[in-house]
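User: Fold this; C-alpha cells only.

Assistant: Input:
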Amino acid sequence: MYFYIFLKPGQCSWFFFETFLFVSRIKSNMKEKFEKISTLPKSNTSKKKIKEETAKYIQIIRERQHILYAQSKYSLLIVFQGMDTSGKDGATKAIFSSVNPQGVSVTSFKKPTDLERSYDFMWRIHKEVPTKGMIKIFNRSHYEDVLVPMANRTIEQKEVKRRFDHINDFEKLLEENGTVVLKFYLHISEEEQSKRFEERLTNPMKNWKFNPSDTETAKQWPEYRMAYGNVFNHCNAIPWHIIPADKNWYKEYLIAKKIANTLLDLDLKFPNLAK
C-alpha cells in the first residue's frame, strides 16, 4: 500500500520552527515519524504477482497516454522526490520506457545556475510544466528550493513560508488549468541508501552515478527528514504519496497503479472529426 500524509493547518506545529536554532529540538520527532512508515512491502507480498500487476498498469498507462495526447485537453505532471539513491530514474525508466516518447518528457532539476538564480525561484520550474496532452516527469522539482536550504539552515523561516505559499499557489494554478499533479516521495531506509552507495562504488556499470557530494548529503539524513516533514505539513493541498522504495519492484507497482488509476479517472476520449 502507499501512504498519504494529510495534515491540517496548525496540526503538528512543531514542524514549522521559528528559527533554525531549534532544528535539533525537533529533529528526533521527525525521525520517529518517518520510522513509523515502512520502506518495505509486507512480508507476505508476492513479488511475482506484484510484477504481473505492474505490467497491467503500465499497459493501461500506455493506452491512456495515447488518448491523452490525441485529446489535448488535460496534462499530467508527475513529481518524484526522495533521498539520493531512492530510485527516481529507475522508476521513470521502468514505467515509461514503453510509452510513446512524443507524449512524455523528463526534466531533472539540479543546483540552480547563475541565470536561474537571477530570476524568482519558480521561474525555471514554470517554463517546464507540461502542455495539454503531455505527461511531464519532474526528477526532483520546485521543492528542492526549500528542502536544500532548510537542510543546510541557510534560509529564514519567513522566506520558507513565502516559498511554501508560492508553491501552493503554483500547484493550484496548474490544476485549475487542466494539469493533474501527482507528487511521490520515494521512501528508502538509511541502510538501503548505504547499500546503494556501495554498489555505485563497486559496480563498474554504476560508477558513473556516484558523485562525491552525495556522501556529504547523506550525512544530513536527519536534517532532510525534518525538511521533508515540513514540506508534507505545509504543501499538502495536493496530497503526497509516500512510496516504500527499498524494493524497486514494489515501488514501481505502487507508482504505476496510482498513475494508471489517475488516467482512468480522467474523461479521456478520442476527438471527433472537425465539422
